[in-house]
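Q: I have 291 residues here and want to know how they pack in 3D. Can you give me a structure?
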Amino acid sequence: MNSPWHIHLLGALRARRGEQDITRFRSQKYGALLAYLALFRARAHPREELADLLWPDADMDVGRVNLRTALASLRRQLEPPGIPSGSVIVADGHHSVRLDARAAVTDVAEFEDALKQAERSSDPPEQMRLLSRAVQAYAGPLLPGFYETWALTERDRLAEAYLRALRQLSACFEQAGDLDQALDHARRAVSADPLREESHADVMRLLAAAGQPQAALRQYRELSRLLDEELADEPSAEVRKLAAQIERQQAVRPAAPPAAVTAGGTPPPPSARPPPAAAAAPPPQPAADLS
């Protein structure tokens, strides 16, 4: 059997197998048909359902003709000469259509499979490995540029799962004592959804734990700005409480001694500053008069 098609739905729609790389389809509707069959490849889809899904405003007879034309176009791309007809796109007579799960794999399935395995794992290193694999598989939002209801619903669901995975992975790294990686994944969660308070709070808490309270408070101010501009809202009481706690911690931190100032009025860099002087030795005494 030929190697399977890898159908990418996250970040952009494309189909790859060996040196074959399909990134363009005859129309967006044809691409949407492939994406829908790939995303829900575990079941067969009635032809009437597919026709109504993709051409909802068309007469049913016109929708069926459109569907047949779309399937024929996809077969020419996915089942070129040398590939048996029906080995990728399987049609059950005039009733249903599906993708052969052995002939097509998707990045969405890889992403969700890694998440399910991580959820079942009770071994922290294994859980971190699986969560990292899931995060790596998520190349971007599902099917950007497609605005069908089913695409929008699945896009939101997978984006939420990705955000949870980032926060879980951040927590795993924090528990393992790797604050740098914990911060990196917390910041990626903020980038994935800049209006999600919990992600900003994670970054604030981790920065404070890393001895960077000023950076933590800058993160809080950035959150406040975003919420005010985008939602005309303010941070929740819980996040405000966290910011106040960080401010109190900063207030009790011992102040660093002032650095020496150069002739130009600016302190020299740490590497150029002389080491602290040792206690001054007593001045030399005059030699005793032995005459």
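Q: Anything worth noting?
A: The first strand starts at residue 5 and ends at 8. The two ends are 113 Å apart (CA to CA).
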